[in-house]
């Protein structure tokens, strides 16, 4: 198997006095989420605890219905837990009002969705600026930042295109650039490569590799082992509970990167 022991799960191991304390992008403790319906209560998360240090790259896996999107939605301040605590940096979001959640969501969270969620009437640069619009910040400086991000994801020559004039992979690049525009605590991605072919999947994962190498924390949900093995750590949920939490060995990450590169080269040679 390609993974080693877990780290950083609850309770957090006591750090040795010689080590500098680890900063957490998020700290999750006994997180529960129940959806109360007419005839039943769905216990989507049943007490999940783990920490994500800054700079980590976590893949969340698990069967359909195991609570992955529910967890990501809590991390993204889209919804509140029924109980437990969820720290984003120094803020406990489980005690925040809806307004406070909306504020932190627009200022400090970057989202990437399977279906891109771009605004069709807006150009690439305008789509990247959307989170800033919600903060009432739109001006030449913000446009400059959006152009810079578009270039970083390889869309410098597509600035004025609309989503319908872009491929799926290019649309997902816009979504990644948009997720970075507010300098987020972390990038949350729910099956970001779910709609993409293998060449484009590799291109998107290469962008995540680069962002993580620059220090950006990434938390990504996926059903695909090969996508998860590009991360530094795999957290598996089962029935709303944390099932396993394992580090991915660097050699396994390297092997899957090489496998993707070979597959992409073969596909391109056939074109
Ligand atoms: N708004 C909601 N109201 C009621 N039940 C919900 C709601 N959202 C999710 N659930 C239920 O909570 C459980 C976890 O759902 P969740 O969407 O988190 O699963 P998932 O792991 O993301 O699955 P998938 O891999 O299919 O996307 C499921 O049983 C689901 O039916
Ligand atoms: Mg889901």
UniProtKB/TrEMBL annotation:
Q: Which family does it belong to?
A: Belongs to the ABC transporter superfamily. Macrolide exporter (TC 3.A.1.122) family.
Q: For this protein, what is the EC number?
A: 3.6.3.-
One Pfam match: ABC_tran
Map out region (Disordered) in residue numbers.
Answer: 1-23
Instruction: Pull one GO CC term from this UniProt entry.
Output: plasma membrane
| Repeat as UniProt keyword | no
Q: Which PANTHER family match?
A: ABC TRANSPORTER ABCH.1, IMPORT ATP-BINDING PROTEIN
Instruction: Please give the Gene Ontology molecular function terms for this protein.
Output: ATP binding; ATP hydrolysis activity; transmembrane transporter activity
What residue stretches are annotated with the ABC transporter domain? 26-264
Q: What class of enzyme is it?
A: hydrolase
Name of the molecule in the record: ABC transporter ATP-binding protein
Alphabetized UniProt keyword annotations: ATP-binding, Hydrolase, Nucleotide-binding, Transport
PROSITE patterns with a match to the protein in the record = ABC_TRANSPORTER_1, ABC_TRANSPORTER_2
Q: Which InterPro entries match?
A: AAA+_ATPase (IPR003593), ABC_transporter-like_ATP-bd (IPR003439), ABC_transporter-like_CS (IPR017871), ABC_transpr_LolD-like (IPR015854), MacB-like_ATP-bd (IPR017911), P-loop_NTPase (IPR027417)
């Amino acid at each position: 198997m390609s993974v080693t022991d877990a780290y950083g799960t609850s309770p957090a191991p006591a750090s040795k006095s010689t080590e500098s304390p680890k900063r957490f992008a998020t700290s999750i403790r006994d997180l529960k989420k129940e959806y109360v319906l007419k005839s039943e209560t769905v216990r989507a998360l049943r007490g999940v605890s783990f920490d994500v240090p800054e700079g980590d790259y976590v893949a969340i896996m698990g069967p359909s219905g195991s609570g992955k999107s529910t967890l990501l939605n809590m991390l993204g301040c889209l919804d509140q837990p029924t109980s437990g605590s969820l720290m984003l940096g120094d803020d406990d979001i489980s005690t925040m009002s809806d307004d406070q959640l909306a504020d932190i969501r627009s200022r400090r969270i970057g989202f990437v969705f399977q279906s891109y969620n771009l605004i069709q009437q807006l150009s690439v640069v305008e789509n990247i600026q959307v989170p800033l619009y919600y903060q009432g910040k739109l001006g030449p400086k913000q446009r400059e930042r959006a152009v810079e991000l578009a270039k970083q994801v390889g869309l410098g020559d597509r600035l004025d295109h609309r989503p319908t004039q872009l491929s799926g992979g290019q649309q997902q690049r816009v979504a990644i650039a948009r997720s970075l525009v507010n300098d987020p605590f972390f990038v949350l991605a729910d099956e970001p490569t779910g709609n993409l072919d293998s060449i484009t999947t590799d291109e998107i994962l290469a962008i995540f590799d680069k962002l993580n190498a620059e220090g950006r924390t990434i938390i990504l949900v996926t059903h695909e082992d090969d996508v998860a093995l590009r991360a530094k750590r795999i957290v598996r949920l089962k029935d709303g509970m944390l099932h396993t939490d394992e580090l991915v060995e660097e050699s396994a990450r390297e092997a899957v990167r090489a496998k993707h590169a070979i597959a992409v080269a073969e596909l391109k040679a056939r074109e």
